[in-house]
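Here is an idea for our session: we take a single protein and study its fold together. Start from the sequence, derive the backbone structure tokens from it, and show both lines together. Once you have written the record down, we can walk along the chain together:
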Amino acid sequence: MKKEQELKDIVKERYAKIAEQGKIENASSCCGATTPSNKVYNIMMDDYSDTTGYVEDADLGLGCGLPTQFAQIKQGDTVIDLGSGAGNDCFVARHETGSEGKVIGIDFTPIMIEKARINAEKLGYNNVEFRAGDIDDMPVSNDVADVIVSNCVLNLVPNKGKVIAEISRVLKPGGHFSISDIVLVGELPEALRQDAEMYAGCVAGAIQKEAYLQLIKDKGFQNIKIQKEKTISIPDDILNKYLSQEEINSFNNGDTGIFSITVYAEKAGTKKEKTKVNLSEIEASDCCTPSTGCC
């Protein structure tokens, strides 16, 4: 496999092209990045169409789950979406956090940031912003987010431990994340594991399920649980690009499994509850007036 920066450049190039494609084209390929299959296969993505806050123009069909469905977002929360693409998960999160909250999308592909900003402006969402940057070095201060979500993105980053450390840094004490991602059980065939196209397609960059969960535990997260899990099957007409028929049969009938999982975990610490001040309940004597000399 190529070096870390080379892999990042490959992903950035692929996803710039994906931003120019339609949802149907992306859904018929492996996480949007590989050559489309001869048939339209819904390989990884879940259906958002019945999700409140869903914006069709912002859905490029690149996800492998519905992390916002499980993220326990509350009104007034600050939410960060890692790998925000054209903004779909941000807009769903914005519905949950309401106008009192804030949503920050982070993506390292300039055209994705541009598309997301255009979508936000069309919707008039002044509390949703998009920042250009790597998710393993987020352009965000410490202890900012109540909730972090991400949809089929960590598998694209070579240094996953660094991303999880960054998640811990930007979450408030007691904050939590809900992340959908691709993981493995068993080893991929070498031809798939070494191919940069399959890396950009969310498969070759996936790590073992147990190793993924251990990384989260090692960074000090608590109450780790899998909220949803589903099996991912790669169609034979995509596998034909990499494997012989005998290898395809062995792969499909072997012990290797590719899964989409949605993982929840909490940062250690006590979350401060937000309080609202009701001015009508404040005694007149407590108010600042010119006569008190404090105004």
Remarks:
- The chain has eleven helices and eight strands.
